[in-house]
Amino acid sequence: MNSDLAWLKEPVARPDENAARLAAERQAMLIKPPGALGRLEALAIRLAAWQRTPKPTADRVRIVVFAGDHGVTEEGVSAFPQSVTAAMVNQFARGGAAISVLARTLGAELEVINLGTVEETGSVPGVLDLRLGLGTANFLRGPAMTERQLAEALRAGRDAAARASSAGIRIFIGGEMGIGNTTAAAALGAALLGETPEALAGPGAGLDTEGVRRKAEIIRRALDRHGSYLADPLEVLRRLGGFEIAALAGAFVTCAQRGLPVLVDGFICTAAALAAERLCPRVSGWFLYAHASAEPGHARMLAALDGKPLLDLGMRLGEGSGAAVALPLLRLVCTLHAGMATFEEAGIAGKSS
Ligand SMILES: Cc1cc2ncn([C@H]3O[C@H](COP(=O)(O)O)[C@@H](O)[C@H]3O)c2cc1C
Ligand SMILES: O=C(O)c1cccnc1
Q: What are the boundaries of the signal sequence (predicted)?
């Protein structure tokens, strides 16, 4: 492995089992029938282990949206033109995008990083410009990224996660913007899972049935073209991924190495989570899956990660929006866990037997 990438092999943090035990003991003492809060109870215990405290919180949250364009859009794989990527980056900063509204409403920090749009966003205040090129290359013709671009995209993610961890952030949310990136994510998923392109390709931002069929065909040709190189997950990411997907994978690995829990968004973020797990086994022990995307291939990737989404709202937006929508649930998990009275405090008789 290239020495620039050695950090990918650093050890994954271990959750604090003692904090988990204390949180489980507290859950058993709260004034409710044991188990009556269902999955919320296990979530409180997991958050306790991750945050190394019997009373976890979900107050300080940072959403980092990575953006990049995709050369494969020239194959007609998206219902929208490539120029939408840069236009949306502007909107993230100006406050009009879904994720901007969600971040504002939730009091979450929003960081926007442009890793390579075809169109300029350099003058937009609030967007970190780290462009590695004018989008990736069309992966039907060659690798999407050079080795250097892959290393820099992974590192951009690593640095963003390290900044969040150093700033005392308690939960990390990754988001993405990149017209064509459901094609890249589906190709990644197919290559990493050994699934057919048809099982992973879906409408994305709005393809019709014929469009989905063509998208699967493009992915099939790409898998054939890159062939045996796809046995190596790093090569899968370099050949089929995107700048924003690689950055997400890098961020997720770093979060796990630093002990910062990740609330994973939909289809594209889950593809990045799967790539992260293949690059650095066991990082997924730090991931929670926010929602079941309407993109049909999502379920297969979740199954491979043994992930059970918190919500199922038919969302298919990306940007980190599904994770943001799930955040209030985690906040309620924490406030219930910390704020409810125990049987002893309330003077209520506990379970008889
Ligand atoms: C206006 C608009 C805003 C978006 N925000 C996220 N996406 C989402 O759609 C894109 C992926 O879909 P596909 O692979 O089909 O192009 C990504 O940018 C994703 O974040 C958007 C898409 C559009 C059109
Ligand atoms: O679930 C997602 O992340 C998604 C689905 C469709 C389009 N963009 C994003």
A: none
